[in-house]
Design brief:
heterodimer; A: 284 residues; alpha/beta; Rossmann fold; 2 domains; six-stranded mixed beta sheet; four-stranded antiparallel beta sheet; 13 strands; globular; B: 249 residues; mainly alpha; two-stranded antiparallel sheet; 10 helices; 2% strand
Chain lengths: 284, 249
């Protein structure tokens, strides 16, 4: 049986009449980068809040590093680091105070905190900003501080909720490199994102959620294979496009030969964007 | 117990850093309201009179200490939590850490306790300088701490429940302000009609003020009032605990 460091079984969350997450099960393997995609309102944030113990599920169970998220919430929380969608730092205190506070909350000893602060802040280039108020930092620097906070206690699992949203290209590339580095050092990463390219570049496997249900799960190649790895895209006169998907180039070319000669068609590799659009009926 | 205390102080660290950074403004704002009450009531409206068999200054100082414990304890905790929940999203960070819910509740009340104790200490110092009738005893300090704790716990609850700063302002105007003037802090409530007196008797500031005044002036100790303040502490704590446990914040 596969070893899942994050395991959710039949997870459901209701808010009154609204069914935000519907019988969702996920197993994330130790050491992988797992991408979690879904349109706005699909249930991504509610799912991540349940996986990180912040919101109790209406029904179903979550286990993190072998700890039940409700009965053993302290142990589960000690095993995770969370980088939230919006910077969740205390903006009224300094970078150093935020980091130390976070480490104290993780029950770290002061001597250990000092060493770890030097190590992580050096790696993230934060040395010169340690005594700045968080309020005075740009979005990219705040994100770096959030990452340091989440990594202080060396968690085996990192949750990143749309970590690159709002960052410039340079900061985004730096964060991608960091995510790969952390994963290379053994961290399992659960990543939600709005950017298909991000999921393709970083994730070993991708789950797609729509209307609270997991509708597809697999590697990017497996997901492409679900609709066809080759796409024939036809541009219509009214500006719309029609896509047809095929298992191979030969089938696609045969299809193209059947089209009128003046049709504006192109052939290309199916993208995750195509998969997403086909499965959810919506663009990401 | 030691673990709870340790975790409580870990939770409170961030708020205490903020307070240290803003020490001057915290100190000034803690002094203004109590001194105004003292000047307006002690030297303005009731100058030279007596109340409850003692000089009015001796009567009113414990009442103002009770008011300070309420306003400082409530406001500093409720506003800090509201900001951290709604504007900084940093309250979620506390929930994500491996500390007990009790530690979060106690830890978030520390800032209110400190502010309340600061305001109370300023007023007590003034009272000791102005009259010989007030006695500083360990019991008085414990009772002030209990009062600060009760209202800080109430502030935690308001901070968890409020959805905007307007709600907190409304609580201040509809709950704290009437309590300030009606709970026997600044004058005796003996002349109030029966039903009003009964309603006032159910409010925490009435009992907090009663306890502090009796201890400060060496009167018979009102054990029932102490019990009521302790019951409010327990009720507010349980409400705070439940709100966090159920994720209703």
């Amino acid at each position: 049986m596969e070893e899942h460091i994050i395991s959710a079984e039949h997870l459901t969350k209701r808010y009154g009449d609204l069914l935000a997450v519907d019988d969702l099960s996920i197993g994330v393997r130790k050491g992988e980068i797992f991408g979690f995609l879904g349109p706005n309102g699909a249930g991504k944030t509610t799912t991540i809040r349940m996986l990180t113990t912040m919101t109790p599920p209406t029904s179903g169970t979550v286990s993190i590093a072998g700890h039940d998220s409700v009965r053993e919430y302290r142990e589960a929380r000690g095993s995770i680091g969370v980088i939230q969608q919006h910077n969740s730092l205390d903006k009224d205190i300094s970078v150093r105070e935020n980091i130390v506070h976070h480490a104290l909350m993780q029950n770290m000893k002061r001597s250990e905190i000092r060493k770890r602060v030097e190590e992580l802040c050096g790696a993230m280039g934060l040395e010169d900003r340690m005594d700045s108020l968080v309020e005075d930092l740009s979005g990219g620097w705040k994100k770096r501080v959030s990452i340091v906070c989440s990594m202080m206690h060396r968690p085996p699992v990192l949750f990143m909720d749309e970590p690159t949203t709002g960052l410039d290209t340079q900061s985004r590339n730096a964060l991608w490199a960091l995510i790969k580095k952390l994963n290379g050092e053994g961290a399992t990463i659960f990543l939600t994102t709005h950017y298909i390219s991000e999921a393709e570049a970083l994730c070993d496997r991708i789950g797609i959620i729509n209307k609270g249900r997991m509708i597809a799960l697999g590697t990017s190649d497996e997901l492409r294979g679900r609709i066809g790895v080759v796409t024939v895209e036809r541009q219509n006169a009214d500006g719309t496009t029609d896509n047809a998907y095929f298992g191979g180039r030969a089938e696609a070319k045969a299809h193209m030969q059947g089209l009128p000669e003046d049709a504006n068609v192109s052939i290309r590799r199916t993208s995750l964007e195509d998969v997403f659009l086909e499965l959810t009926g919506r663009k990401l | 117990m030691l673990r709870l205390l340790d975790e409580t102080m870990r939770v409170a660290y961030g708020d205490l850093c903020f307070m240290r950074r803003n020490a001057a403004s915290v100190l000034v704002s803690s002094m203004v309201a109590p001194i105004l009450y003292l000047v307006a009531f002690g030297y303005g409206m009731r100058s030279g009179s007596s109340e409850g068999g003692v000089d009015y200054i001796a009567f009113v100082v414990p009442g103002i200490i009770a008011i300070s414990s309420m306003t400082a304890g409530f406001s500093s905790t409720s506003q800090k939590i509201l900001i951290q929940r709604l504007f900084h999203s940093s309250f979620d960070e506390l929930i994500l850490c491996p500390v007990g819910i009790s530690s979060i509740v106690f830890g978030k009340s520390v800032v209110g306790m400190v502010r309340g104790l600061l305001g109370s200490a300023i007023m007590l110092s003034l009272g000791l300088m102005l009259t010989d009738d007030i006695h500083l005893t360990p019991w008085l300090i414990l009772c002030i701490m209990l009062s600060c704790f009760a209202f800080s716990m109430m502030g935690v609850m308001a901070g968890l429940l409020a959805n905007n700063s307007q709600t907190l302002a409304m609580i201040s105007n509809l709950v704290l302000l009437p309590m300030t003037f009606m709970c026997g802090t600044l004058f005796s409530t003996d002349s109030f009609p029966g039903p009003v007196s009964a309603a006032i008797g159910a409010l925490p500031l009435t009992h907090s003020s009663e306890v502090l005044r009796s201890v400060a002036l060496g009167w018979d100790f009102p054990w029932a009032s102490l019990g009521v303040v302790a019951a409010y502490c327990a009720a507010f704590f349980l409400a705070d605990y439940r709100l966090i446990k159920k994720g209703r914040y």
